[in-house]
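Sequence in, structure out. Go.
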Amino acid sequence: MGEDYLVKDNPHPDLAPGTLRDGIVDGIPKLFGLPVPRSHVCIIPRHCGFIDLANINHYIANGDYSGLVKALQMRPKEVIEDVKRSGLRGKGGAGFPTGQKWEFCRRAPSETPYFATSRQRAVAPLVNAMGKNPALLVSTVCILGSPKRQYGDASVMTDAFARVPITFVLWKGDEEVSANGNILFDANISGYLYAEDITVLT
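Output:
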């Protein structure tokens, strides 16, 4: 078909869905003049078909990443205010304002704001209940058919969620070292949930 168009000047209007940008071809409508595409605003793929999307220099030459250049010249607080004014929202389901989220993280006393919360709500009760007798964890969870794992002094994996296995790990305490534990999500969890949702789960 490419040869027909370039050599024989036949653009195949019967096969082409529409033209892009300012291109005008007899018998072929503008793609974004059609009912469905007209209602969409292309941001990331708007250069598709005009530049090599695997070449970042092509992308930059068309004015993209200008927002990043601007942000790098601003103070962190100014960036957050800019994002808040934009009305940008997260896509984790609740549509939480991104600017507010960034502001909360910036004000957090630690670089890991979710860790302390998760540990207090999920790990600490597990350690308090079974830290002195880790075998209790295995005997309790294995009743549900969950397999034993080889981490710490006792660990089991459970399919609490359909696509994300969870592993509970305990280290037995003694007179010198306190009992400890952890909850490990499978690495694929980031493909299904955002950090905020994972925090709620734990």
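Check: The longest strand covers residues 166-171. The chain has a mean pLDDT of 76.
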